[in-house]
Specification:
It is built from eight helices and seven strands. The protein is α/β, with parallel strands linked by helices. It has one domain: Rossmann fold, CATH 3.40.50. The chain has a seven-stranded parallel beta sheet, sandwiched between helices. The longest helix is centred in the middle third of the chain and has 23 residues. It is globular, with a radius of gyration of 17 Å. The two termini are 30 Å apart.
Length: 289
């Protein structure tokens, strides 16, 4: 790794558009390490990663591809440039890529996306509910109804719609992975609505894992700490962005590449005896749960 994304390399910056642009990040994020060696752990698997155009979603998608999976990404139409970049990188790994534009807050979009993945790849084995909306408010009473509902419509309802649709096509050995957050366990003063949705995902993960375990389907989640993705300059005030990793033991934000192997673990047979669990990848932040 050539640099660490900390306050010494990141200048104050803000992005107005949600969920933010990968291309606009300064410095650029790393999504997969050049020396990451795939070993065919996901060969023949078919995956859908929401928010796979950028950030943690792109990291998961690229790691899946390097491990041999065909990968579909679902992204907002406004993120077309980032999606084009992600597709090019996935295909460069020698697997099939599928790009689906749409808003996961809409049930019809989610149902259609699953059907498109199944029609194109012949099935679905891995679902990563990663796409998220985050907007901060210094004073919680400034949170509008529209903002609160947008958080839940994207972060919770989208995961529900996609999971319900995907389960109809999944069989033993399949894996569902949520991207929750350290904020679901530790809280975060400014992003209250976001934290609430990530806590909802944690409960969803544990309950669903119990329901589908007899079918041989595993449900787990990754809880990232502060990671250098477009959601950071989009969701936080510009002057706070360089300091988002200061409260970790490592004193910095992480790269998306530092989470990729966690998703591979949960998607592969390496985690065959793991369900209803949370992998905390947060630079040493101590949380309960």
């Amino acid at each position: 790794m050539t640099y660490s994304p900390d306050r010494h390399t990141i200048a104050p910056q803000h992005q107005d558009r949600s969920p933010g642009s990968e291309r606009a990040l300064k410095p650029a994020a790393e999504h997969i390490r050049p020396d990451y060696k795939g070993s065919g752990k996901l060969k023949g698997k078919r995956a859908l990663v929401t928010g796979g155009d950028s950030g943690i979603g792109r990291a998961a998608a690229l790691h899946f591809a390097r491990e041999g999976a065909d990968v579909a990404i679902l992204y907002l139409p406004v993120e077309q440039e980032d999606a084009d970049d992600a597709v090019r990188l996935i295909e460069a790994e020698g697997v099939r890529a599928l790009a689906i534009a749409g808003d996961i807050a809409e049930r019809a979009v989610c149902d259609a996306a699953i059907e498109q993945v199944v029609a194109t790849f012949g099935g679905i084995d891995i679902l990563v509910n990663n796409a998220a909306h985050m907007q901060g408010e210094e004073d919680f009473t400034d949170t509008t109804d529209e903002s609160w509902l947008r958080h839940f419509n994207v972060n919770v309802h989208g995961a529900f719609y996609l999971t319900r649709a995907a389960l109809k096509h999944m069989s033993a050995g399949a894996s569902i992975i949520q991207t929750t957050s350290v904020n679901a366990f530790a809280g975060a003063r400014v992003v209250t609505a976001y934290s609430a949705t990530k806590a909802a995902l944690a409960g969803f993960t544990r309950a669903l894992a119990l329901q589908v375990a007899e079918q041989g389907i595993r449900v787990n989640e990754v809880a990232p700490g502060p990671i250098w993705t477009p959601i950071q300059p989009q969701g936080w005030p510009a002057e706070q962005v360089p300091h988002l990793g200061d409260n970790t033991a490592m004193g910095r934000m992480g790269h998306p590449s530092e989470l990729g192997a966690a998703y591979v673990y949960l998607a592969s047979d390496d985690s065959s005896y793991v369900t209803g669990q949370t992998l905390h990848v947060n630079g040493g932040m101590i949380v309960n749960g």
